[in-house]
């Protein structure tokens, strides 16, 4: 209730679309991820919609004094310094739960990048779950949620589908976001 009031009335944001209520497992990709503001907006939007979405973040976020907050919000730490197979580990988490929705940033950082990380793709493929696109449209103060997209056997076509969705979206810092060119 408080989240909805803050999201809509105080901040003036709205949600276009909805998370699929009938699906218990999927990967959510959230972009453009260009500012620290993305996280609180995403949490408020998630709470407004009322669907449990989990996320992972760099391990340092989960250390004292604020780590308990990120955990309470549905987060789990990932040590990006180790060369373990994170994709297999996350696919295993999907397989161990009846209900699991994981939000990731395809850019992997708030800094400008020339290519997206593909871990989200391989996680969705390995767990055999669809991808739901979630856009931070700061220009129009709206969160845009696309219908679930079921991956094909053509990674380039799938990635082009994602790029096309985000191409005209303006994040908090538009100069830090770019969609890679089509393959």
TrEMBL record:
CDD domains attached to this UniProt entry: LPLAT_ABO13168-like
Key words of the record: Acyltransferase, Transferase
Gene Ontology biological process terms from the UniProt entry: phosphatidic acid biosynthetic process
SUPFAM superfamilies cross-referenced by the UniProt entry: Glycerol-3-phosphate (1)-acyltransferase
Pathway assignment: Lipid metabolism
InterPro entries: Plipid/glycerol_acylTrfase
Residues annotated as domain Phospholipid/glycerol acyltransferase: 27-139
Residues spanning the membrane: none
Keyword Transferase among record annotations: yes
UniProt GO MF annotations: 1-acylglycerol-3-phosphate O-acyltransferase activity
Pfam families linked: Acyltransferase
Protein name: Acyltransferase
Organism from which the protein derives: Tenacibaculum mesophilum
């Amino acid at each position: 209730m408080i989240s909805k009031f803050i999201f809509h009335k105080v901040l003036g944001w709205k949600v276009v679309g909805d998370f699929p209520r009938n699906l218990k497992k999927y990967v959510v990709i959230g972009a453009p991820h260009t500012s620290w503001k993305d996280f609180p907006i995403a949490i408020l939007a998630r709470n407004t919609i009322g669907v449990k979405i989990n996320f992972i973040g760099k391990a340092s976020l989960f250390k004292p004094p604020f780590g308990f907050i990120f955990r309470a919000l549905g987060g789990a730490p990932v040590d990006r310094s180790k060369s373990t197979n994170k994709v297999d580990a996350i696919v295993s988490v999907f397989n161990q739960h009846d209900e699991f929705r994981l939000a990731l940033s395809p850019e992997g950082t708030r800094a400008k990048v020339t290519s997206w990380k593909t871990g989200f793709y391989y996680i969705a493929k390995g767990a055999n779950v669809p991808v739901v696109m979630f856009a931070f449209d700061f220009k129009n103060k709206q969160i845009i949620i696309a219908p679930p997209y079921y991956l094909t056997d053509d990674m380039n076509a799938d990635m082009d589908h994602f790029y096309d969705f985000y191409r005209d979206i303006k994040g908090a810092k538009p100069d830090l976001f770019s969609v890679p060119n089509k393959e």
